[in-house]
Amino acid sequence: FMETLRFGVSIEARGPVYQAHGVPERRQVVNKAEPITNPRGIGLLQYLLSLDSDAPGVRRAREFVRERHGGIPEAGQAWGVDLSGPHAVNRRTVDGQRLIAPAYLRDEQDFVRIWARRYFEVVVGAIRRHDPNHLILGMRWAAPPSDVVLEEELNWVDVVSQNNYRAEMVERLDLTCSRMDRPLLIGECAVDIDSAWYVPNPIEPPGGYASPEERQELRNADAFDQVFRHPGIIGYTWYKWGGSKPAPERVQALREANLRSTALAAGAVTPPGVGEASWTGHVHLALQQAVVEAEDLPSPEPGAPPSRRTSAQALYLGLVIENDRFRPEIRGNAIRGRITDQQTGPDRWRLTFEVECGTGLYQLQEGAGTFEVEIERADGRLTGRHRGAWNGLACEGKALGYLHRPVASTKV
Asked: What is the pTM assigned to this prediction?
């Protein structure tokens, strides 16, 4: 929906506009399953007001501005930018200027809500006219939707759907699950992905893996186990065979995952750590919205201070636990760290640690952080909260973890 404030994004505006200069190289991740959305960074309302068209969306944007401000010049006064004269918004858009004044962003979010509501009203209304009992399975989001859009979607759908092409499934999908009381369907996923083949686990088993295929097999079994045990996720859709005969190993991986889901639900299979009084082994711990990236947004006015856009991603860590006490070392994909303080109680921990991150596959930002994490163990899973700072920027969010493998030795 061309939102300036996507999920996890905030802007500190020091001026009403900024000058766009393309997509930073570090964000140009080569992954066709995760395309960069709206790379020019144009907000929906600005985009529609820039068009010389009589299309319904353009008319609705103009009506919104007239209803709220009286017209485009008056809206410009409210947004702190000169929009007088014909094609004023278009000229700024073509020149690469993006509206980010707080008053504009509030209007844009309100307009996005109207836009999303109308989208669902038309599409779901048409389906339900022909089949009142048809299940509406959502949008198959490529990333967590914003609060505004998700709130509107929940008024119309039976299930929310989101795609995932990373080895970390639950850790990413939980960002959407935790904001709603509706089930989530994994709209697309696959097992033959680079992040399962080549990106190392936070901790590898003794001697490493014999091949990328072995890592893929174990990592996907891990991911599907967590999916099947998550109370908010009801299933997944394997994304197409690509027009060719499916490889036997792919079919076998999915067959085993499906059979295992039934066994997990029936209690015939017990994942590592479930029902154990104390843990020994490798723990995978995800800190949601822990890696904070700040990007300066230059002003078109010479000498004016830049605005700032911040966004946050997850941090995936590997720890070793022995008889319910964590070793000091922390590992990960181009990550090294150390626990500096550890307080334990029955099925709970408070950890203070420092981490440093270099660059690697799917890890393009260097940085360092300090964190305090409080986690509790229940039903073989770890849940809690973290707070701290990444590259000097404050962060906080949810912590999720589980016992990955019941062995304590490691391969760095």
From this structure: 0.91
